[in-house]
Design brief:
Layout: H1 2-12, E1 16-21, E2 27-32, H2 51-57, E3 62-64, H3 67-70, H4 74-82, E4 86-96, E5 99-109, H5 117-133
Antiparallel strand pairs: 1-2, 1-5, 3-4, 4-5
């Protein structure tokens, strides 16, 4: 799985790529740019109540160029801080047998950015490959 995540990290030039699967969608795999903190052991965020996770759990990809502006909810804003200053993200459902089996996230820390169509599509492709490997 790391090969899929690492390739997506290189292709997007982002800070972090994570794969979450299992009950409550904990981070099970991640690829990190140099100096980027891991969120594998982060315990203060309840992902089940986060608006992006709710959207992705329904099978929809979420693309945010400015994550801080997306939701004013205090729990969401806490998540951005807890994840190292998450500023922009692409979050994509990993579908297996017609069900959301995992969540693939690409995070940009410290600065907003405009994601290209190619980067958004690369996330979809990586989610498909991850689904085949699960």
């Amino acid at each position: 799985m790391f090969g899929v995540l690492d390739a997506l990290l290189r292709e997007t030039g982002a800070s972090r790529v994570t794969l979450r699967h299992g009950d409550g969608f904990p981070v099970t795999d991640e690829a990190l740019a140099p100096g980027t903190p891991s969120i594998r052991d982060e315990q203060t965020v309840d992902l089940r109540k986060q608006p992006v996770a709710i959207e992705v759990s329904a099978g929809r990809q979420v693309v945010q160029n400015d994550s801080a502006a997306a939701y004013a909810d205090p729990a969401y804003q806490h998540m951005l801080e807890a994840y190292g200053g998450l500023a922009a993200q692409i979050v994509t459902p990993v579908i297996r047998d017609g069900v959301v089996a995992a969540i693939l996230s690409v995070h940009q820390l410290g600065r907003t950015r405009t994601w290209s169509d190619a980067e958004i599509e690369a996330c979809r492709g990586a989610a498909e490959r991850a689904g085949e490997l699960l």
